[in-house]
Amino acid sequence: MKTKVLLLFKLLIFNNLSFSFPLISSNEVCPCLEEFEFLKGYVERNHPAFGDNVNETNRVEYEEFVDLLFKAIQRDSINDHCIIYLKKYLAYFKDNHSQINDMGVQVDENDEESMKRFFSSSRFQQRERIPIDTEEIDAYLHSGNSELVEGIYESQDGTYKVALLRNQNGFRDYYGIILESQTRLWEPGQVKFELKKLDENLFEGFFYYKFYGLNYETVSLEENRLGTWIKLGASQNGQTFISPGNGQGQQLFEYKKIDEQTGYLAIRTFDGYFKNELDSLINAHENEILNLPHLIIDVRGNGGGSDALLAPFYPLFYTDTLKNELPQIYATQDNLITYQDLLQNLKADSLRYGRATIEHVEKMILKIQNAGEGEFVNMIDPVVSGIEEISFRFGTKDFIFKSTMGINNRYNLTYHPQKELLPSMPEKIVVLMDRGCASTCENFILLAHQSKKAITYGDNSGGYKGYGNVFSVKTPLGYNFKMSTTRYEQQAKFEFVGIPPKVRAVPNEDWIGKSLELFELEF
After folding, report:
1. Strand, coil or helix: what is 177?
2. Fewer Cβ close by (within 10 Å): the C or N end of the chain?
3. What angle do CA 439, 445, 447 make, to 5 degrees?
């Protein structure tokens, strides 16, 4: 399998970026090469996925892959392209959490002096421009000679409208030219993105962010969508697509009553910074949630955050012993410094994060300090005495669970009858999930899957389950590099592919309406 991956990377690197760029002189210092060496060294020392992907059986293949990237960087004189090679390197390790991004330039659109500096900057001045003739473009797209991928596209938030047209050189096969822009930072005629065809309806995409940072990703044309771009006028299931406009303004947490039997709880983040907000919402609606037989929990688009926000849902989902895999920290000197920095930040805002979170991180630091360099250690202490009590709060009620260690680095949580009985309602829970549900949100899905009164509905989750606990790392060129520090050995099978729902949604289905139908089924 790794050989196939290496061959694909060879194809991507040589087909795209070795065609005509002048080779950098040996006397010149290439900033991208220095950045690449930094990234490579940091990942090899500190990434928990490195040893899972590079070992004695494929070490030579890995070194060949690195050499290909190194030579491609030497041949490429376009500074903006540096991020492409860095992203390709990180992709080798199959960790969705670890990413490196070019955030572009800093500019304040409301400050004219800032805008003047931006308009005179090399990034703005050097961005490719194409003379546009909208009548000519329209005539070509309706001539019958255009390809399926060509057409007029709009960004998902409605900010940009582009014409995607075929234009070949050694780097690309298509370019997206701006026709309309709702921001002054981009103007009609500028090339917003470029595509290189890999296969039928599969492309390498080179997309420029609002602030001119370059993003590299593989995208596919699926019905009317090309990544986050939407093809206008395309027919989808017999209906002409209409632009969705801007979907901003949603609350992070929301509760409402749908009918006399059903409540609806939306959780759009598990970010630890917003723990108090989620707790407050649950407190405010505790009686209603615990007195309605049906509950819809919507975690679509929830990119994850902190497992501390899952605590209220253990008593809500519980029907039998819950099994959880312990994450493992990759103990290195650099990762130790990362967690020590985290601890200082938590202490600086202790009222928000709480004493329990601070003590948890202090224990993790001690475990890393006591471990050998490059050793995996459990992020959470196994139960030393055999049984440990853990309290989970839903609203104003505390529920005590007993934790015991199981096999395969798992721990079991069991509820034993006590003064505070587990909630008898809701009797049935439907969880709405999609590809935007990632990381901690996927832990939430795994929790729901163990409940006899819950059913998941929607699409596969995002596939961020093999590795986690991401922290930012400063790079020489100032790119935004975020890297995992932990792994889940057993749950790595869900990395990239995601966790499937119990009931899969079909296109154009009314998700709330379908949820109400599911309540009529036996779970």
Report:
1. strand
2. N
3. 110
For 353-402, how does the pLDDT look when each residue is reduced to its tens digit (9 = 90+)? 888 889 989 999 999 999 999 999 988 765 444 567 888 889 998 888 88
CB-count exposure of residue 70 (10 Å: 0-12, 13-18, 19+): middle
Q: Are strands 388-394 and 191-199 parallel, antiparallel or unpaired?
A: unpaired
Q: What is the pLDDT of residue 382?
A: 56
Rounded-to-5 percentages of helix, strand, coil across the chain: 35, 25, 40
* Superfamily, domain 250-324+421-463+498-523: 2-enoyl-CoA Hydratase; Chain A, domain 1 (3.90.226.10)
**Residue holding tokens 């039997």?**
261
Which residues contact residue 50 at a Cβ distance below 8 angstroms, ignoring those fewer than 6 apart?
A: 43, 44, 93
**How do strand 454-458 and strand 428-433 relate by DSSP bridges?**
parallel
For residue 516, give the nearest of 260, 340, 328 by alpha carbon: 260
What are the extents of the domains in the chain? 2-101, 112-240, 250-324+421-463+498-523
Give the DSSP letter of residue 190. Answer: B
Strand partners, 160: 181
For 453, the 3-state DSSP assignment is coil
Kindly report the backbone phi and psi dihedral angles of residue 266, in degrees, each rounded to the nearest multiple of 5, phi listed first: -100, 130
Residue 102 near residue 214, CB atoms below 8 Å: yes
How far is Cα 363 from Cα 358, in angstroms, rounded to an integer?
A: 9
Q: 221-258: per-residue pLDDT in tens?
A: 987 889 889 999 854 333 333 333 333 446 899 999 99
